[in-house]
Amino acid sequence: MAEYYLNGTGTPKNVEAAIATYVRAADLGHDGAAKALADHYRFGTSGVTKDLALARKWYQRAMELGEADAIVALGYMAEMGLDGPKDPVEARRLYKLGADRGSGWGAENYAILLQVGKGGAKDEKGAADYMRLAVDRGQTGAMRRLGTYYRDGIGLERDTQMAIAWYRKAADADDSDAMVELGDMTTNGRGMPRDELAGREWYRKAAEAGNGAGMRKLALGLASSEFTGVPSDNPAAIRWYHKLAETDDPEDAAFAADALAEGKAVPMDLKSARKYYEKAVAADVADTARPLVETVLRDNPGEAERAYALKILIERAEKGEGWALAALAHPGPMIDAARLEIDSAAWRAKVAALTDPKVLTDVAKALQSGKLAKQQFGLAVQYAKAASDPSVAKEYQLKLMMDLRLQEAAQRELVRYAETDEFKALPEERRTVFLAQFDTPYMFNFNGDASHIPTFAALANLGMKEAAAKYAWRLLDDGKGDSAAAMKWFVIAAERGSADAQRAIGYLHSKGFGVDKSAVKAVRAWEDAYRRGRAMRH
């Protein structure tokens, strides 16, 4: 009866009467009524005013009456911090309790927390056991996740064919994320023959189901063709970018805006890019205010647009965002061309008075990247030093050396710095990010001679892909050197993502250096090199 009141079925819609009916049924011991009322309060559906405190109250009543999914809902509220602080320990306890009382949703959520070690110890074997239990109870998402467990060997023996089978079962049950996974595996030839056209069709199915990742990958695939014969369709790509921007996820809008503002794979559309950046900025998506300003200034701004861009810059600067402070204190060519009226001296004084290390570091980053702020590596180093972050100061020193085309000196300094206690004391993630900034073809755009081998080897052993490729080339020495050792390092570099190394593998197969001479393997390697290069551009 409560649902009839809510939906106005056979009677005028009456939310108050519906709530009273739910309450009466719950008080009489109907667990489903208590949970349904809690759901309405939690989501604010069917005219019921959203109220998380009341949602919690009625989930607890449903839990007392034995409703397993209500227990899991309370766990979810604890995990997400709904109507209280986040409490992953309590969430984990409630998920397990719900799972042990028969909830497939609880089994799936408990498995996820076991997998990542949230709210307690990490237990991949236990995660796999509970994920299987969730599958047995009909959880579609659990089928996909079980596929990922098989694909990546999480709590189970790695088995690509089992992964594909579970992804297919989930896709057959309309799980669009599973469709995206199948698109990736088909496109990359993982566990099956590589078929980019078939992969695109999986992305299309996911996209048509409203999946943002599917839309992104479909649009990217449609926007540019591969030389393997898969056709491009730019008009369709443009349509999908616009559909992507209209989803409920503002990060999708930012992704579409990036593509339309860049104007490489699809024609530039600055007006649409501005619209989608504004949507992302309104939702506080990180790192979207800056490209919004850039887009406005690039689109032949009139007086109103210039005032709008300046307003955003000032608002963001007053919030302490380093990119905006750098742009106002040290205007770059884009701001100069737009003739924005800025009192740069006053803003430089404000920047000079900064003491927040994070803001100073962000100012330094903006000065080294250029665009809105004038590119000044030397000044960036000074701000980084002021931030008391010697690793950032070293980062900009090396970038200044590269800007001056002193790559060899930069490589030697990078090797030296990597051996210092300062570098070794950095968190692993920071060390990885630091090295990745210099792991580029530009850093290694010369072949060198035998004297460069120790430098290349040292950087290759730090995990740098382009250094590994260059080290391999020196070992190969035009076929006169150690071809087997060269191939070993080319493979390592290719696995790290080096397109240059993948091209080299094709070259070795074409010449028969250290491997069987094979035109087929050469072409395959060159195709992979093309894809790696394209992936890096996106």
Describe the fold and architecture.
With 538 residues, the chain is mostly helical. Among the domains are: 110 residues, Serine Threonine Protein Phosphatase 5, Tetratricopeptide repeat; 118 residues, no CATH class. The chain contains 32 helices and no strands. Helix 5 runs antiparallel to helix 6, helix 8 packs antiparallel against helix 9 and helix 9 packs antiparallel against helix 10.
List keywords for this structure.
538 residues, 70% helix, Serine Threonine Protein Phosphatase 5, Tetratricopeptide repeat, mainly alpha, 0% strand
Secondary structure topology:
Layout: H1 2-7, H2 15-27, H3 31-43, H4 52-64, H5 68-80, H6 88-100, H7 104-116, H8 124-136, H9 140-152, H10 160-172, H11 176-188, H12 196-208, H13 212-223, H14 234-245, H15 250-262, H16 270-282, H17 289-298, H18 303-318, H19 322-329, H20 333-338, H21 344-352, H22 357-369, H23 377-386, H24 390-403, H25 407-418, H26 421-424, H27 428-436, H28 453-461, H29 465-476, H30 483-495, H31 499-511, H32 519-537
